[in-house]
Sequence to fold (370 residues):
Amino acid sequence: MAMERLQTIDGLRGIAAVTVIVQHCLEFTPLRNPDATMATPIEYIFSNEFNLGRFGVIVFFLISGFLIPSSIRNQPRPLISFAIGRFFRLYPLYWLSMVLALIVGAMLGRQTSSLVEVLVNITMFQKAVGVANVLDPYWTLFVEHLFYLLCAFLFAVGALFNESAMRTIVWASGIVLVLGGLALTLVPTAWYAKHLITLINYPSLIFTMLVGHNIRMSLGRGDPSMPWSVLSLYAAVLLAAYLGHEAYGGFVGLLSSASVMYSTGAALLVFVVVLQTNMLRGEIFAYVGRISYGLYLFHGISLWIAITITGKPETFWESLALLGLVSGITFAVSAITFSMVEEPFIALGKNVRRFVARPDAGLSSKPSIG
Fold:
């Protein structure tokens, strides 16, 4: 991939991480007001129509779809090498964030996770067995792992880099998601409605990453244009999901059906525009992108500390101070851990991958006869 595009992707990562931080800070400010009306438009928009956290997460998923499959290609023992690379990239900093979350949470008197929850969280697959996350943002890492498993399967059957096959897979899965949303819209009280909601939620995130991979394949063959038919299908999936959630009774937690649709659509639009224009190539954007994993993992802990220091903000300036304090702590911790944890373990992972790729790796020497 051209250096310009790599810098652009790093810039996108940085923007995604910052928007997640801002959203989670907003939820402690007066701007988080579910009862807001258009009489207070900013409160109304951020509470009901747009979610910066969702925006950032979707950008991250599109980037994963754009980059991750290519890390399997053109290397000896590709699946083993891929698994090693992902392990050393994700787990060391993840485990450090768990340790810090448990220590800081205990010091601040927060309710801590049980021993069983901690042990299951170590695997990063806690969502699969219904165990609570030590930190809320961990849920996206489970989705990432599902995509890794899908990529490994598609590679094993020879479909991952077959553009025709991947286009068929995207269209088939997109149509299923659209039909699921429409079925939920028409019969929201049917016995299978709960299953349709499950079908729409997590699979739609995997679908997002498949769309990112399709975009990469289109650009990779030297065609500067986007796969507009796939992007149109994505828009149809978003609309069907919105209609289905509205009929079923809305989304969950702090998200409204409208904010999910608008935030996801905005993330796709920004992703496409930035890739087409090669924006966000400055060194500052690139650096923020490089430390974005730490920003994502540590910002929740920083928020606990900041709220303890400042209290819940009640004015604009107090809200701004909270955002500044959270950002300062998060960036400092992320910069330090990037140099002391991420980079060394990524380098170690590369060495292990090179060792595994050796023709004689894992083979014992023939015993001498004497």
User: Anything to note?
Assistant: The radius of gyration is 22 Å. The chain is about 70% helix and 0% strand. Residues 150 and 206 are 9 Å apart (CA to CA). Confidence is low (pLDDT under 50) at residues 363-370.
